[in-house]
Design brief:
Blueprint: E1 2-5, H1 10-24, E2 33-39, H2 44-54, E3 60-68, H3 73-77, E4 80-87, E5 95-102, H4 109-113, E6 123-126, E7 146-149, H5 157-167, E8 172-174, H6 175-178, H7 181-194, E9 198-205, H8 210-222, E10 227-231, E11 237-244, E12 247-252, E13 258-262, E14 269-272, H9 278-287, H10 293-300
Parallel strand pairs: 2-3, 2-6, 3-5, 6-7, 7-8, 9-10
Antiparallel strand pairs: 1-4, 4-5, 9-11, 11-12, 12-13, 13-14
Domain Glucose-6-phosphate dehydrogenase assembly protein OpcA N-terminal: 51-165
Domain Glucose-6-phosphate dehydrogenase assembly protein OpcA C-terminal: 170-299
Protein name: Oxppcycle protein
Amino acid sequence: MKTDLTNTTSSKVNAALVQARRAIGSPAVGMVLTLVIVTDEANHYDALKAAADASREHPSRILVVIKRPGRSPRERGDSRLDAEVRVGGAEGSGETVLLRLRGELAQHAEAVVLPLLLPDAPVVVWWPVDAPDHPARDPLGALAQRRITDAYAVEQPLEQLAARAASYAPGDTDLAWTRLTPWRAMLAAALDQARAEVTSAVVESEADNPSAELLARWFADRLRVPVEQVVTAGPVVTGVRLRTATGDIHIDRPDGPVATLSIPGQPTRTLALKVRGTADLIAEELRRLDPDEAYAAALRAHVTAPAAGHGQPG
């Protein structure tokens, strides 16, 4: 069921949600959290689609905040809220509300969102593109237990990571880190099998890839070894080498969804290691709402490069 509301208020949006639930005979139960997406007109469709797919695993109330402050004084003076309420149908057991905040109201999004949060349920705020410099101090971010950014979506991703490290607060995370989960799991399992001390590491990726940067920092933090970063044609992270006295532990994914894993003394194996979509990444982040201490440590770590002539990829 879809309801359009023009020049409305949060209380009227809440009333429309209740009415829509009654119309389809589905009470608002079973929803586990409120997901607030802060985006713009150009990016809201893709973000909403990813969130809707993720909500099949995590039934949620999805609030899409689209700020339209206006450029001219006249546009800024036209302060109003337009909303679109969707319940049932393609939304499944969850609810979706598109909130278009125009004029001065765009500067006070928290006042609109706060009355629409599910009572006694966690709040997650996701900025698919332009995130604030300090997510935890942002008025919307302050409402959330979990704040999700994406360094891969900005023009200067490595500068973004530096800003994230400076402003980190428990509950912050970034999809550049989430993209590394399969890599980290495979590398940890490979180290358990190899049982050898790592002397240095190499991360291969496209230029300025934030996931590769975080992976290098993770190695520096956890393994305390020099890390070299090698630029390849991509896409994203294409390979990792962990050097040991008995040979290299090597994961190679030049392209596509398949990678090879080489461990000294063992046959080379083929592994599934596809580039995951945004819906999978958001679904993973919604599984845990506690602070991600590994991300915080990697974010703040400093990479030490190998000495000249050491650690070159073979």
